[in-house]
Design goal:
2 domains; 4 helices; rod-shaped; binds zinc ion
Length: about 160
């Protein structure tokens, strides 16, 4: 009987050991995958994985405290968001002369009459003052109107053309 009991204890210990090893292995794999999502630095990846490999659960707790808070995908999404926000701000135009807010399709500033844009003589779409060719129809507009800097020219000089 003591021999049988010894065998049972051995089997139980082997099972527990195998379970612990598998659990440990899973923690290491999880950490490796997680740090790959958060850092491209190979040294950081190795250190994080080694931390969990050496210290197991306490190492994992340390890792979750110290790991970069954002994944690379999250950081990328945030940078895209910030970029579009900046672009939004840049697209809100203001009059170069009086600095009042103007719409992007204004030809003349309604406050100080400064010329902001001019229509293409061919397709009539609005062009920046410095453009030499209409980007919409390809018409050469370099001779049509005075080039920047914008001056407070009334709209009628445009209409006269
Ligand atoms: Zn103005
Ligand atoms: Zn045009």
């Amino acid at each position: 009987m003591p021999q049988g009991l010894g065998t049972i204890i051995q089997v139980v210990l082997a099972l527990v050991g195998a379970y612990a090893a598998a659990f440990w292995f899973c923690l290491v794999v999880w950490t490796f995958r997680d740090i790959q999502k958060r850092s491209r630095d190979a040294l950081v990846q190795v250190l994080a994985t080694a931390l969990v490999l050496l210290f197991n659960v306490p190492g994992l707790i340390l890792y979750t405290i110290l790991r970069p808070p954002e994944t690379l995908a999250e950081a990328y999404a945030r940078s895209l968001e910030e970029e579009s926000l900046i672009q939004d701000i840049e697209e809100r135009q203001s009059c170069p002369t009086c600095k009042r807010r103007v719409q992007s399709d204004f030809v003349v500033c309604p406050t100080c009459r400064a010329q902001l844009k001019r229509p293409c003589g061919h397709c009539n779409r609005l062009l920046q003052l410095g453009w030499r060719v209409c980007p919409y129809c390809g018409e050469d507009v370099s001779t049509e109107a005075p080039v920047a800097p914008p001056s407070p020219t009334p709209l009628r000089t445009l209409r006269a053309e």
